[in-house]
Amino acid sequence: xxxxxxxxxxxxxxxxxxxxxxxxxxxxxxxxxxxxxxxxxxxxxxxxxxxxxxxxxxxxxxxxxxxxxxxxxxxxxxxxxxxxxxxxxxxxxxxxxxxxxxxxxxxxxxxxxxxxxxxxxxxxxxxxxxxxxxxxxxxxxxxxxxxxxxxxxxxxxxxxxxxxxxxxxxxxxxxxxxxxxxxxxxxxxxxxxxxxxxxxxxxxxxxxxxxxxxxxxxxxxxxxxxxxxxxxxxxxxxxxxxxxxxxxxxxxxxxxxxxxxxxxxxxxxxxxx
Amino acid sequence: xxxxxxxxxxxxxxxxxxxxxxxxxxxxxxxxxxxxxxxxxxxxxxxxxxxxxxxxxxxxxxxxxxxxxxxxxxxxxxxxxxxxxxxxxxxxxxxxxxxxxxxxxxxxxxxxxxxxxxxxxxxxxxxxxxxxxxxxxxxxxxxxxxxxxxxxxxxxxxxxxxxxxxxxxxxxxxxxxxxxxxxxxxxxxxxxxxxxxxxxxxxxxxxxxxxxxxxxxxxxxxxxxxxxxxxxxxxxxxxxxxxxxxxxxxxxxxxxxxxxxxxxxxxxxxxxxxxxxxxxxxxxxxxxxxxxxxxxxxxxxxxxxxxxxxxxxxxxxxxxxxxxxxxxxxxxxxxxxxxxxxxxxxxxxxxxxx
Lengths: 273, 354
Prior knowledge:
The complex is a heterodimer of chains A (about 270) and B (about 350).
Chain A: H1 2-12, E1 21-32, E2 35-46, E3 50-54, H2 61-68, E4 76-81, E5 84-86, H3 91-96, E6 99-101, H4 114-121, H5 130-135, H6 139-157, H7 173-186, E7 191-195, H8 203-220, E8 223-227, H9 231-237, E9 240-245, E10 248-253, H10 255-259, H11 262-269
Parallel strand pairs in A: 3-8, 3-9, 6-7, 7-8
Antiparallel strand pairs in A: 1-2, 1-4, 4-5, 9-10
Helix pairs in contact in A: 1-8, 4-7
Chain B: H1 13-16, H2 23-43, H3 46-72, H4 80-97, H5 103-122, H6 131-150, E1 163-164, E2 169-170, E3 173-174, H7 178-200, H8 203-213, H9 215-220, H10 225-252, E4 254-255, H11 262-275, H12 280-304, H13 310-331, H14 336-349
Antiparallel strand pairs in B: 1-4, 2-3
Helix pairs in contact in B: 3-7, 3-8, 3-10, 3-11, 3-12, 4-5, 4-6, 4-10, 5-10, 8-10, 11-12, 12-13
């Protein structure tokens, strides 16, 4: 059922061809005190591809995403983004380079409406000064209206027109996940990091979310790095998969190769000692 | 039945993002402003101006300023009284030392000086939050208390620390009588409420609310926490500083640091909480609740014709007032502004609820 839905969605749009390496992680090591969260991990992400990171609980997947967008600073290793070596960087700097993300536990602004959440996603692009905003006249109003038009496109794309004025805290879980994707998309990112976008969803919601992820990738050409536990989803929609276990990389390649990799099977099913 | 938006279709985002998108709200606000600017000056007596309306308006303004910091940006502050004090003494010093300065300029400069002080005491917010920040801002309150009662330069070498403001004079016109003072304060309050409302619906306002709701996520979508928090402290202190200058110059006339002690900070924080965190309207409702309600309660035995001594009446006032605070917080923890919003929501469907 899942495969059929995904196939019909991806066949309806023309994907952009997978391009050059956009993000390269080289020998990344991250430790918290005595806990080695990531040790010596290298992998790359190519432009326009859907790259999945999988692994059992505690494997270091979310830590990896946090390293990519600057929440954690690795002790060792280098990150090349769009060909440039990245030095220690704060999350808002990374955001300004075109990386957006969603969170495992929804991190929306609960007191704000859906519309305001999405508008906040475009804050980086808003330039008028504080005095102009105090008057809300001329430049500020034009800016707000231009960004509102863009945000409305995303609202239409995600089919959340009916809830645009609803405070996010009142929405059901599945819709909150969708709004969070919308907030990330509002920033028009070149790379989107999704931390378990389908966790806790039923089959229909997962299908919807898969469709949105594939459509984002196809229509906007956004590179997607995805953490997901549902193997059916991962094998269906991703181009290449990285497998982590206990902070080490144990597999990397196309979904089918990873599926047949003995180390990966051992990590998921256990080994007889 | 009358509060409905049926048939009011918006055909542009401009109309949808207007200050008051619903026609009934626009009518209501126009009527309210007409009453405030024309009706009240014609009808009210001097006691009403001096004891109720002027303090209510000035404290509303201070509550609007505090609400930007606490309600919109989520940074608890117990230093509001101290920041009002900075505004009042800055305005006093400017007016006394530079006598030729236009009073409007004096007020704006006083606001700017408070902005700087507020931002300095806002720096701890970059490291600590919640109750810990409340304690850090409480330190600001005590420091400023000490500064203005001990350093004689600020009080122009007056021995007790009390100062008297010169007469309010703007563009050669003396705002001397209660009605004139009221109109002056009302204009300032309306202006700054509008500015505050505009700020919270622009991108700076969204960066404040994002920081309040989920600071990690805010940083990851590109909002710089330093800028969001310090700008909230700056805007809030500016408004609070101007409210402080008005409190000194227009309401008190002469004052000492005690007029802006920690009780002032607490009562402003209560106004914001009872009125509604994150609501400009709530600041006014909260100020009305805290300023006007005790005065009304005090009059009730008199109206009822009950023979009651002033002291007994005062005791009853305190008891009923405390009970009402608890009542409202249980009925609606999000404040009076939320009650108002719920009432409007109900009115849209009334009397046909389906």
